[in-house]
Design brief:
The protein contains six helices and 19 strands. By secondary structure, it is an alpha+beta fold. This is Metallo-beta-lactamase domain-containing protein.
Length: 274
């Protein structure tokens, strides 16, 4: 019995004798199956290869980023957000070894894991078991869980306060249950929003974007983006960290509103004429 991991998306599946026939994450139109076909690995194989290493870096007081080198699967960054007595892992990466576990325990461990959307579920159950942490996933994305666990809590509604300084907000878009994290104590209490790629910081760090599918370039409807902007206009934040270690350091709330308007204008043919 083994817990197979899809090489393309990095999501781990429940234990089985044989590898699954397909990855339910990658065969859906927001993702893709590799041109080389469906291939699998396991966490044990990744560790035994000696190829991978996680880097944990301090981003600002109370915030650490975690990334895997060389990049694996989607290649996202996870973050540890530290509160007064509550530490959260925001989003997840696949690779986890004893060195990573010991380093994280050395900075206070993890009390909970919260996910922005299914593409970053990764080996979340391995992380939860290593740190005895609960996993928080919006119930709208329940169907995408590939490895069930009693560690998982499916929350409902539009917001969930996990600690006084950490609030989850379901804003939809990329997935129905797409979620962002408001960190009130971040950025010297000017507040931080951690967005996964529900809100993606683009190459020009003054702007963000929103997509139904990033690899397949499928945009979101104008009404959906307007809804996201409206929800985020109710949340105070001055800085954004996204899933690929892109940061808007200042005036991020205004940047999101300007970006949403530009996006909608582009869809409606107002922004340009080509």
């Amino acid at each position: 019995m083994k817990n197979c991991i899809c090489n393309t998306c990095g999501v781990q599946f429940e234990s089985s004798i044989n590898a699954p026939e397909k990855c339910t994450i990658c065969t859906e139109e927001r993702q893709y199956v590799s041109l080389n076909g469906q291939t699998w690995t396991t966490l044990e194989e990744m560790i035994q290869s000696g190829k991978y290493k996680n880097t944990i870096e301090s981003e600002e007081q109370g915030l650490y980023s975690i990334s895997t080198s060389p990049s694996f699967a989607i290649g996202q960054t996870a973050y540890i957000v530290q509160g007064k007595s509550f530490n959260m892992l925001w989003d997840c990466i696949t690779y986890l070894d004893s060195e990573t576990i010991n380093k994280i325990k050395g900075i206070g461990g993890i009390d909970a894991i919260a996910l922005s959307h299914p593409h970053y579920y990764s080996s979340q159950v391995e992380w939860a078991e290593a740190f005895d942490a609960r996993i928080y996933i919006h119930e709208d994305d329940k169907q995408w869980v590939t490895r069930p666990s009693d560690k998982i809590i499916f929350w409902s509604g539009e917001s969930l306060e996990l600690a006084k300084e950490m609030i989850l907000h379901r804003i939809g878009g990329h997935f129905k249950g797409a979620t962002v994290l408001e960190w009130k104590n971040g950025n010297a209490k000017q507040e931080v929003l951690l967005t996964g790629d529900i809100v993606r910081v683009v190459a020009d760090r003054r702007w963000v974007s929103f997509m139904y599918s990033y690899p397949n370039f499928i945009p979101l409807p104008a009404a959906t983006v307007q809804g996201i902007a409206s929800r985020l206009n109710e949340v105070k934040f001055n800085r954004i960290y996204d899933a690929f270690h892109r940061i808007i350091s200042d005036q991020a709330g205004d940047r999101v509103q300007q970006s949403a308007k530009r996006y909608v204008d582009a869809l409606n043919g107002v922004l340009f004429n080509t």
